[in-house]
């Protein structure tokens, strides 16, 4: 069995999310979530024994992962669905294991023009 662990620090909500992604012997995907965020915890049981290709490649609006997450997560800017996709891609060997960061800050336009 192959497994990937992803930690998401979601931002303004202050929640951390642990995503455990596994491919079992039949190459079926299983995801487990650990967080103080109740909507994220509702995702447990929604991604079990799935074809890992389902919703991983293609358009966002066609993604099974985004569809399921949209039924439970309350904020459109939640990074958890994207983290799920990246986790599955790494697990399947379709992406490299790499950290992803987003830093969002106000800046002074005068300083930005000189950089």
* Overall tally of domains: 1
In percent terms, what proportion of residues is strand? 15-25%
Instruction: Name the helix and strand elements from N-terminus to C-terminus, one letter apiece.
Output: EEEHEHHH
Class inferred from helices and paired strands: alpha+beta
InterPro entries: DUF6951
Pfam families: DUF6951 (PF22263)
What are the salient characteristics of this protein?
single chain, about 120 residues, alpha+beta, Sufe protein. Chain: A, four-stranded antiparallel β-sheet, globular
Give the gist of this structure.
It is built from 4 helices and 4 strands. It is α+β, with helices and mostly antiparallel strands. The chain has one domain (2-92): Sufe protein. Chain: A, CATH 3.90.1010.
Structure description:
InterPro entries: DUF6951. Pfam families: DUF6951 (PF22263). This protein is of the alpha+beta class. It has a single domain (2-92), classed as Sufe protein. Chain: A (Alpha-Beta Complex), CATH 3.90.1010. Helix content is 28%, strand content 23%. The protein has helices spanning 38-41, 64-72, 80-92, 109-114; strands spanning 2-9, 16-23, 28-35, 50-51. It is globular. It starts with a strand and ends with a helix. The model has no long low-confidence stretch (mean pLDDT 89).
Explain the layout of strands and helices.
Elements: E1 2-9, E2 16-23, E3 28-35, H1 38-41, E4 50-51, H2 64-72, H3 80-92, H4 109-114
Antiparallel strand pairs: 1-2, 2-3, 3-4
């Amino acid at each position: 069995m192959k497994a990937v662990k992803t930690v998401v620090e979601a931002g303004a909500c202050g929640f951390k999310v642990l995503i455990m992604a596994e491919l079992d012997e039949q190459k079926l995907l299983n995801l487990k979530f650990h967080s103080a965020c109740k909507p994220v915890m509702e995702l447990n049981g929604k991604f079990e024994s799935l074809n890992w290709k389902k919703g991983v490649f293609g358009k966002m609006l066609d993604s099974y992962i985004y569809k399921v997450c949209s039924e439970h997560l309350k904020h459109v800017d939640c990074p958890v669905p994207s983290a799920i996709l990246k986790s599955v891609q790494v697990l399947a060997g379709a992406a490299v294991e790499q950290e992803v960061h987003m830093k969002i800050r106000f800046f002074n336009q005068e300083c930005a023009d000189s950089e």
